[in-house]
Amino acid sequence: MTDKTSQESETSQRKAEVERQAAKRAERSAEQLRANLQRRKAQVRARREGRADETDGLPASSGRSAASKGTDAD
Fold first, then answer.
1. Are 52 and 46 within 8 A, CB to CB?
2. Whole-angstrom distance, CA of residue 73 vs CA of residue 43
3. What's this model's pTM, rounded to 2 decimal places?
4. What local confidence, expressed as pLDDT, does residue 36 receive?
5. Burial track 5-19 (b if 16+ CB lie within 10 A, e otherwise)
């Protein structure tokens, strides 16, 4: 009988871990969606005001390209 209860305990622990990981994934996804929405809203507001879009490429890219650096000095 103890084997049966220990198996049930392990199964419930695995289920709890899977649920915890799913909750973390959902939380990260929601955070990324909120950040994306904020960026998009900022872009729309900038366009309405006639300003140039301040974003340059993907957020993960490092720095600005050499071609765009040359145009800023002019």
1. yes
2. 24
3. 0.52
4. 96
5. eeeeeeeeeeeeeee
